[in-house]
Amino acid sequence: MSRYHLGVDIGGTFTDVVLLDNETGRYTTAKSPSTPNNLSNGVINGIKKLVTDLSEVDFFVHGTTAGINALLERKGAKMALVVTKGFKDLYEIGRANRPEIYNIQYRQPEKLISRRHIIEVEERMSADGSVDNPLRKNDLEQLVESLENQDFDSVSICLIHAYKNPDHEKMIKEYLQERLPTMSISLSHEMVREWREYERISTTVINAYVAPIIEDYLEKLEKEAELNGLRSNLHIMQSNGGVMTAEVAKEIPVQTLMSGPVGGTIGSIEVGQNSDHQNLICVDMGGTSFDVSLAVDGEPDVTAEAELEKFPIMTPMVDIHTIGAGGGSTAWVEGGGLRVGPESAGSDPGPACYGKGGNRATVTDANLILGRIDSESFLGGDMSLDVDAAYKVIEDIANKLGLSIVETAEGVCDIANAKMADAIRTLTVSKGIDPRDFALVAFGGAGPLHAMFIAEHLGINKVKIPAIAGTFSAWGMLQTDIRHDDVRTYVSVLDESDVTEMNGLYEEMKISTKEILSQQKIQEEDMLFQCLADLRYAGQEYTVTVPLYTTIVEEKSLEELKESFHDKHFNIYGHNNRDGIVEIVNLRLIATGYIDKAKQGKNLGAAEKEAFPIQTKPVIWENKRKNTTVYSIDDLFPSHKITGPTIIETPSSTIVVPENFVVEVDNFGNLELTRGE
């Protein structure tokens, strides 16, 4: 009998597991060290801490870092790129823009594929989708020969104007599947059906680069899960905030690149909705990185185009800014000054206090020296920390700087806090957004340790800490639906647009996405389609995506679309031009398949007695040692109110509350902290 929902998120240091018991409505969590050499081992080890018979699991969703790790570490597949004859240098040339115009040392990133592995084929589609030069069998034979001779694992096929007419790409794939059945094949029109040839090629190349790694990883995980009794589909978190089955993920692995951090964003929105906070800054601090995302009006901030490792990628994803600042970020001295990150000690050997042979000071070691985390109750008592080892590595840094050990430990944390605050400013202040208008939701194993200090840096008055903050991204994945995005290029002056043609393109996308949702066992009555359009003022290069509030486009819909565009342009850029000519560039469709989702735990009743601390211990606050109360989150209920300084311990994280914060508990056990003047 199926009774569980299971969410798993792989981090750089730990793999987080959340299990919902549908019968009791209770959540249990676990952490297991990540296993970089075989990520599926860490996943199965973590799951076995909570459930041994996976036949009782009816929904399993997983956020994987296999693809993004392969891209960051440049350990992707050996691949070829197939292009239309005459366009061999398009990927190499890219765009002529210089992203860091004042950086005299700026260099373009080394391409994922060398020029000698780019193969031209004789064919040509015109911009209107008509066949200008047909594809011939002789060219296909030569292509097969080239791919066989160089022993490629993967191939990306990106033909000119394939977004308008993909027939030639489909023909090549069909032929290669027949002759080279083991090769992974990525088609540009399956990745993105819109213009901008370089960006379309870049997206497809990234997909081909990580595809064999993702396919191999998911097959291993599926096999291990099946051996442990799993009978339901394995679902994978997508970068756009939805989920998809593992079978679909193998076809479009580029959609999984940010699948881990996105779970926390979706979970934050669920927490915010239960406390009337619609505008959120979501921060996830683990052992290796610090991820920042926004939710505006209760929706994730999704962008249609992003950059990863300076490569453009045209696929919808939650806009996440990441820096190397986590609990495992190492501290070091350069030019007489203290530096923190981006290098991390990871999970092996990890911080010195883990007792695994680490010999470099980290943020976690600094927090241990300051008394903010406890050596005996770390991770709910599952792991003991070596205070002497932490003391030694912090002392080494202190001696080089001529500071005390306490001053050095506080300096390490202060620098990390400042870097994380700057990361938030990148997504807010640099875009004209005032972070003081948002609530901060902090999660991850180390997020609640630093959240209040970050809020003070930015002047944020409200901070939310989820009850299961240490494994929150895995919990957030259980709040999602199946989602698929599609796009068609349609260029026209908005007032002159042909609504019949627009409706035809939207219908084409509905048919396509409905088929994909059906493959994932979504019933038609559980499907929802949202139409959007990319608009711009005449003369502009880039666009603003605006939703249509109907699934059938009429003449009045165009006027409503224009008004929405003017308003949104003003909100984003601070100006608009209501007399200007508005152009439509792309039509977009979001297809959602609703599934039974896990909700937050049962409502907590008011406390029957006063909250008492589990201990009092010395903690360093602004270079002063103070006896500080320590509470267990299990003893806190909605009527309780606690004033800092204090520390609250959970099984998967520690919450540090400075002096000017007041802590309250909501009906679901989440903490809301209010900053005083």
TrEMBL record:
Residues 499-673 form the Acetophenone carboxylase-like C-terminal domain. SUPFAM superfamilies: Actin-like ATPase domain (SSF53067). InterPro entries: ACX-like_C, ATPase_NBD, Hydant_A_N, Hydantoinase_A, Oxoprolinase-like. One of its GO terms (cellular component) is cytosol. One of its GO terms (molecular function) is 5-oxoprolinase (ATP-hydrolyzing) activity. Residues 6-179 form the Hydantoinase/oxoprolinase N-terminal domain. Residues 200-485 form the Hydantoinase A/oxoprolinase domain. This is N-methylhydantoinase A.
